[in-house]
Design brief:
The complex is a heterodimer of chains A (240) and B (504). By secondary structure, chain A is α/β, with parallel strands linked by helices. Chain A contains 6 helices and 10 strands. The longest helix of chain A has 18 residues. Chain B is elongated. The chains are: A alpha/beta (240), B alpha+beta (504).
Chain lengths: 240, 504
Amino acid sequence: MSDRLREGYRPGDPILRTVNLTKRFPVGHGVTAVDRVSLEVRPGEFILVVGPSGSGKSTLLALLGGLDRPTAGEVILEGRKYSRLNENGLARLRRSSIGFVFQFFNLLGDLTAAENVALPMRLAGLPEDEVRRRTEDLLAAVGLIERANHSPYELSGGEQQRVAVARALANQPKVILADEPTGNLDRRSGLEVIKLFKRFNAERRQTFVVVTHEQSFSEFADRVVHMEDGRIVRVEGGAA
Amino acid sequence: MVILRLALSNVLRNANRSLLVILGMAGAAAIMTGSMAMRTGYVNPAFIDYRRFMQADVVIFPRKLHVDSAAVRGRAGEPLETIRYEPTFGSDLLSLEPGLAEDGFLAPASGRPDIDLGALRQVLSGFPNIRGIHPLFEIPALLSVRNVGEPAPRLYRVPVRGVDVRAVESWGGGPPVGAGRPLTATDEGDLLHPPARVALFDQKSEAFPVPAIDSEVRLYFPSVRERDGRPTYDWSDLRAYDFTAVGTYFVPTGMGQLWTEDGQPVVDQEQGRPITVPTYWDVPDVLVPSRTLALIYGELGGTAQARADQVGISVDSMYLAKQTASELQKVLPDYGIYTVPDLIRLTGGDPRAVRDGAGRIHYRRGGDGRMILPADLSSLINALSLAIAGLLAATNMFILVAQRRHEIGVLRAIGASSREIFALILVEVLVFAVIGSLAGFLLIRLGVTFLLFFSAVSLAEAGRSTLLAAAEVVGLATLAAALFGLLPAWEAARSTTVEVLRHE
């Protein structure tokens, strides 16, 4: 990433920032899924985004991850404005700086657990011995080293999500974005995943933004952002 | 590497669709392989028949052929001279054909036959691929035929060719017989005792009227004299030999357009389309058993088996024929060395069927000596088969891309660039193309080998997997698939990443 795109970013500044972020979908008379959201996420912070269905949480997460383009406003990651990046620039950014965890795991069924974890590293062109070492470390960290060569279809939902977490962490991103990561899991497995997030957050100082329905996970968060109708209506635990 | 691996696993995962696309590519490659073989190899029935007629895969001529069929009325490339008899020449020929004294007749120039078999065999012994050497004997003669309604027989100049009847079976038979019967081993005999000397006549030739089956015909051969150490024909000293016409033969060339005598295509008035009819090589030869001809040659004064007009060579495949002809030409630069397909293109290609004013059809050589129709048809078939296979591959890839939008979204979410997605889809198409085209190529090759094995025609080009032919088929199929795969690959590459969330 060129310095020109990162100008103005200093250590200690918010790692992820949105400015009047807006997303409208041209459905009927137009639906505003995210409405002028401005949010600052500090390095190492653990943020929960909660709200009812249709409040714009997942759309906000897609915009934060550069998976979708905003109608207006800006997303800035470590001083890099998404609006200045083309699709391949955003892909490189996701590869190096952002990890995703999805509700339905989104593991590739043709690959084993280990291969799924290794995939982002291979795409990033890491040396194969480094890929193998990191894959083993990550699978051990999520408690699945014994299941490394299993297909996703041979794993339970909780196990699949732990593999997805390991994959999200593979390239040691600074920011992990999770979209309803416990939404498809039973309560116990969901709790394990959130604890896993918190452990990595504490041990590796990685920043987590987690979209969830589950307000009981608030105890793990530094801040809880409440959304309704595409807007942030309340922030608990700190300033938005 | 990771993209290649993903592509391969996708190919395996979608086994049914992969099989369908591969079958499509295989079909196209099979059609292409067959069409290419028909253009260049013995799979073309005309090549097979001509090969049987020549009894050779490669033919060595004492000199390079120069074909100007419009100007040369004799055999292609043959130097001819006009022979005239003095009116005082005491031959019964002049009483049969008084015109010989005034107009003379065209006969081969001196210096034939002029391949020294002993010397040539020594050169050929250095070529391990050569399976057999077959001297092709031909003696020019005058055929005496009594035409209906004419008081006296007329004379026609004909080349009399020796057929190795014992080797005919190994060539899958001789040329097709139109009437009567083919020559057999029992037809070989000495010149003094029965069985009678027999001959086959070119049924389609316009050079002489075809005698009735089982009729007696007389052939006058020139005697052979040594001149400067070489045998030459002495047309002033002719010897008569009587033969029985046991049959007629023809060498088909396939289908050709029918022309009028003034060069206009004959059109079917009802359908408004040009009329096509079977065509034949015009080879005005009289075929006799080669041993009989060798004996006659000896009686004429020549040293039998020491010299030949042409030498045929048999090899195992058309590929080897091309290779051998090319290598032989390097060591025998003054000789004309041709494979059967090359010979056809050079000397007799594009034979025309011409309808005269009386509605009769004559077969004539065309002017340019090229196999126009098969080459054009082959290119058209190749292009069509490639286009169909490419469209099939593209359609399947479009469906595949649509079904895998979610997976592509996941890949993009974890950092795959659009270029990598593009490569992923394109690699899959190429995998289909390479596997499919190789399968099609091998299928048709094995199939043709199987057929040829049972028909005992030849282990010709089509029966052998040549690297060059495989590379051509696979290369063209892959290129077509790549071109047709560009669009679905581009479609996949430009799909938006947010699909990964929307599909949930």
